[in-house]
Amino acid sequence: MRIVAQQVPWVHRQAGAAMPDAAQFFDRIDRPARLPDGVASAIIDAIETRQLQPGDRLPTEMELARRFGVARTVVREAISLLRYDGIVQSRRGVGAFVADPAQKSTFRISPACFEKRKRIVQLLELRTGVQAGASALAAEMRTEAEMRDIRQTLAEVEAADRLGPAAALEQRVDSELLLYRRIAEASGNEYYVEVTRMIETTIQNNLRSAFLKNAANSEFGPQIMAEHHAVVDALIARDAEAARLATRSRFERAAHRLAARQDFL
């Protein structure tokens, strides 16, 4: 049996035949909508159609995730978008509520500023897992010399913290970055060090001004220092699990504080 290849009119042409404009055969491909934007839009629609009233409590993240058929992280980002725009308000330990339009601030975050904030939050989320693992391993592997370096760097963070952001902002940020790099180095795992350096380089090269402004507004004070001390104390005690939990708590809280702010940049 002889198989005859099917000719595609706009591809196969006899010699000398005029070739059509191939572009006419292709239509524009729309970018798929981001899931968090879709969830946020659905909640806004419910508010605008009065299905949700000012003061109403939104369903839990778990319930919204189930209803929309998405991950909880998607819902969490959608709620953050709405909170940044003043459409909902969050109450710690209670949930998210529809804001009163009469009390809604006219303040808006520019897309560029929001993108910087989002990138810093993503870096903090990445650092959470990386630094927690590095700290746990460092608690077991660190030498006395490495522990002295870590304690000395913590003392430098404290000194800058006492001076305050007006006098020692860059010193405070740089010494804190160095503190967790020292901890990664004490883990003895070169991959933890490599990822930590990559994160630090990204901050220094692309997000330093935004990182400094964020630090000036929220990264000073006894609460943050207590978080650093909890990490270092666990390293001193060679308690791997305590070091893991303290480090995870440190970066999760940092990400939460940043996401909860409405005055960033």
UniProtKB/TrEMBL annotation:
Annotated SUPFAM superfamilies: GntR ligand-binding domain-like, Winged helix' DNA-binding domain
Record flagged with keyword DNA-binding: yes
Residue stretches making up the HTH gntR-type domain: 33-101
Protein name, UniProt field: FadR family transcriptional regulator
Pfam families per record: FCD (PF07729), GntR (PF00392)
InterPro entries: GntR_C, TF_FadR/GntR_C, Tscrpt_reg_HTH_GntR, WH-like_DNA-bd_sf, WH_DNA-bd_sf
Organism classification: Bacteria, Pseudomonadati, Pseudomonadota, Alphaproteobacteria, Rhodobacterales
Record carries keyword Lipid metabolism: no
GO molecular function, one term: DNA binding
Record keywords: DNA-binding, Transcription, Transcription regulation
